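Problem 12. The chain below contains 498 residues. Write out its predicted structure in token notation.
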Amino acid sequence: MRRIRQRRRALLPVAALLAFAETVVPGINSASAANIRVQRNAGFDVTLTDNLNLEPEGRADSALILSPFVGFNARGDGDRVNFAFDYRLTMDTILSSDSDVNFRNDFIGFGRTELINDMLFVDVTGSASQPLIDVGGRTSTSPSVGRSSRTQVASGSISPYLLNNFGNVAESELRYRYSYTFVGSDQIGDSSTNFALARLSTGRMFTAVRLDAIAEAERTNSDSPTGDIDRTTFRLNGQYPIMRELSLLGSVGYETIDTNSLNDDPDGALWYVGFHTRPGPKTDLQVTYGERYGEPDINGQLTYRITPRLTFQSSYVHVLETTQQQLSNFQLIVDERGQLVDPITNLPVDITDPGFGLRTEAFRANRFQSSLVGNYERNTVTLAGTHEEREYDIRPNERYISARLGWTRRLSPYTNLFAGVGWRRTEIDGDTTTPATGTLFGTTAPESDTYSGRVALTHTLAKDVFGNVSFGHTTRVAERASDEYTENSLTFGVRIVF
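Solution.
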């Protein structure tokens, strides 16, 4: 029975991809077919590593990893259908003291179709990746290394919604969203969320003020009882422009929350006050302060275009959620280059990113993200950082800090060079050798710093044929010697686009 369950979960990312395509494709007609672009690719990577399982000194096993892959990228921009998704299937054949074969499904995408003109729409999202199981899990610059710290996760959502205008007086929205997260690790478990929203807003005739009356109901069911959340929220939001560049913001409401993850459910009133300003074409700033979940509620976001080629973005949010909800409620946009990017950081989405670990319990989180992106004729420079604090009632709190710097240079019309460094710091309060973290989730460090660096060279060998070679190094420094490791990997491969 256990083997059948594992096989079922291994097929879930493919099922998610098929469901995604089944949802968006029926809305495509001949008029919009010309705007569909599909790029297929296949290739083969070879990786040499001196520490396959990221073990401490003296216990490391070297390995040769053969990784054939196939994939495709699809973009559609029609009158009534828009979608973008990337997919790659990789088979890692590991040749070491204990040989093994692993499959990696990497998929991310979103779509929207308009079923009734200006009225009925359907949004879909989907992803498949291999994030860290535990916040203190071990990472490498190669996604083929350190597989014991990761697990396959497939998530996504489908959301039909109805928009209606009552002349110029008011407008309304009725929305339903079903989201899911399937996790390969039995210790974490799957979850699903049903969400409903009703909104009534002032119309175009009210130019001096905008009011939004919102009612929300959300129910998350998880394989683990600590992951269940029932939430009902009623809010009245207001926006009042006192000048063209500045608007005042405010909200009042009431919320009920029922979950086994918290000692006391944070039911009660919620409110915030703040402002949204655009003092010029370079700056967009929004800040709110209030109370929610029984504690101060601070949120903000900033975009500042330092120069036409250099942009700084940052955001700070205060949320109550589970990691399964976080994985299924992501947002994406497509930039001018056709890349899927995170709208918060404006950086291309890296589906192989290890993330911040999976948990069955709900938590309060304060999450800060920022990025500095510079696009020049032959150079692209990125600097990104994240700081997140998770507060639990029934397990130790966790803190995570990361920073990374990347530089890409076009050496010639056929050759690109990439160099990057990164740093991750994790802190877990309490004793991590308890069954809640140590026994179930394996390799985790209560406090550690992980440093990484990678250099990669890509060269066009022929039309639509690309070769690459890269070297990566990772070092972890921790309180306990048994949590420290060093790993080097060399990867070279070829990719064909057709």
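Discussion. The helical segments are 2-24, 323-328, 435-441. Students who got a different answer should revisit the alignment rule from Section 12.3.
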